[in-house]
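Structure first, sequence second, as always.
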């Protein structure tokens, strides 16, 4: 039900997204890498006071991505593991090919595509 609601909202929103499910992304500010597992056309709660968004004008106007981060990167960036991150599109970029070998805890239905280094989402999530 929740996934269908998210899909309906994304269809109703005409703003294109930059990153697809399974993309390996890099946070521009904190340097952690992770996998895109979902996205919202706009943040689902108030992000106006988040320190990592101070440099972005009107962050609530951008898509936000649910990221499963590399745990080693989280220890380095935040001092401990994090199960997920919620990140504004403007803070992300595609991870360079040579840095896509990451330590993430994804459901077994997600499969790594060795050809491009991205992960393929389960059919029900697509």
């Amino acid at each position: 039900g929740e996934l269908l609601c998210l899909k309906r909202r994304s269809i109703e929103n005409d703003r294109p997204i930059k990153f697809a499910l399974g993309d390996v992304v890099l946070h521009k500010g904190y340097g952690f890498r992770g996998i895109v597992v979902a996205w919202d056309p706009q943040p689902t709660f108030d992000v106006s006071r988040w320190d990592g968004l101070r440099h972005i004008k009107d962050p609530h106007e951008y898509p936000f991505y649910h990221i499963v981060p590399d745990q080693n990167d989280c220890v380095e960036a935040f001092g401990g593991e994090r199960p997920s991150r919620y990140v504004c599109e403007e803070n992300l970029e595609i991870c360079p090919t040579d840095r896509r070998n990451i330590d993430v805890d994804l459901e077994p239905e997600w499969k790594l595509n060795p050809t491009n280094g991205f992960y393929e989402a389960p059919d029900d999530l697509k």
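Margin note: The longest helix spans residues 2-12.
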